[in-house]
Amino acid sequence: MKIQPRQFGKYLLLDRIGVGGMAEIWRGRQFGAAGFQKQLVIKKILQHLADNDEFVRMFIDEAKIAVSLQHANVVQIFDLGAVHKEYFIAMEYVLGKDLLNLLIRCTHLRIRVPHKLAVFIIAETLKGLEAAHHAVDSRGNPLHIVHRDVSPSNVLISYEGEVKIGDFGVAKASRREAATRSGTMKGKLGYMSPEQVTGKEIDHRADLFGAGIMFYEMLAMNRLFHGKTELETLMLVRDCDVDAAIDKLPDGIAPSLIEILRKALDRDRDKRFQSASEFLDALLD
């Protein structure tokens, strides 16, 4: 049954394009003077979470930080608010597909992601991460932004060839809430870093590890950390024994890319790339 467009505050909700454990995702439109129209995405926080004061506080705090991010490789957040106690984020609409969709489609068609395209997608992702990791507030103080969920479903690829990271400002609250519900993080566990799964304090290098996993999966067309159960997946990430998987990559991949993967996926974060720019420079060298 087709959902009819309906008003939601100053936005018109056109159709629901997805629903997850945290939010409903709507394609919406904003109207202004002289016939102005803007298409965007509205994420409406599910009601049972809107009733959780701690979750709402974390959600608002994170989104306030993320709204300051202005970069071509980051999905921009335009608005944060509530309509009749329904909390929402209004963000940039990217006409295209996410990396997860691309990988699934390539798998079904039995084709590989070209190496140059894989490098391009990761390079553009790293540009967005670099901007976020070095973002400052109005007084020049570092914001210490960490995405926490750098994974294929959060990397959007537009039909015009743009690559943008989505869900800055949502991942922390989402991950904390999902951790209380069995099965809700199954698809995300394989993109966590060893320090995340062992309960250590994380920093920006966890995001770079996620980028390394995505790079491997585009080159291998296979999951890197994927156990039969959630616990098994967590143990695979914890152990981070990736040498055998990297050694089995298809022929034809430049040795320099292999070495980049080994460094990006080192279990010891002090031995990985220490910044997105360092990772990017290695890719483009």
3D structure, described in words:
The chain is of the alpha+beta class and 285 residues long. It contains 11 helices and 9 strands. The longest helix is centred in the middle third of the chain and has 19 residues, at 115-133. The relative contact order is 0.12. Residues 180-184 have low confidence and may be disordered.
Structural topology:
Blueprint: E1 6-8, E2 11-19, E3 23-31, E4 37-45, H1 47-50, H2 53-66, E5 77-83, E6 86-92, E7 96-98, H3 99-109, H4 115-133, E8 155-158, E9 163-165, H5 171-178, H6 194-197, H7 204-220, H8 230-239, H9 243-247, H10 255-264, H11 276-284
Antiparallel strand pairs: 1-2, 2-3, 3-4, 4-6, 5-6, 7-8, 8-9
Helix pairs in contact: 2-5, 4-7, 4-11
The amount of helix comes to 25-40%
Shape: globular
Reported CATH architecture of the largest domain: Orthogonal Bundle
Order of helices and strands: EEEEHHEEEHHEEHHHHHHH
CATH homologous superfamily of the largest domain - what is it?
Transferase(Phosphotransferase) domain 1
Beta fraction: 15-25%
What's the tally of helices?
11
The average pLDDT is: 90
Supply Rg.
19 Å
CATH topology of the largest domain: Transferase(Phosphotransferase), domain 1
Low-confidence stretches: 180-184
- CATH hierarchy class name of the largest domain: Mainly Alpha
Main sheet strand line-up:
1-2-3-4-6-5
Strands, total number: 9
Which structural class should the secondary elements be placed in?
alpha+beta
The count of domains is: 2
Largest sheet: 6 strands, antiparallel
Distance, first to last CA: 52 Å
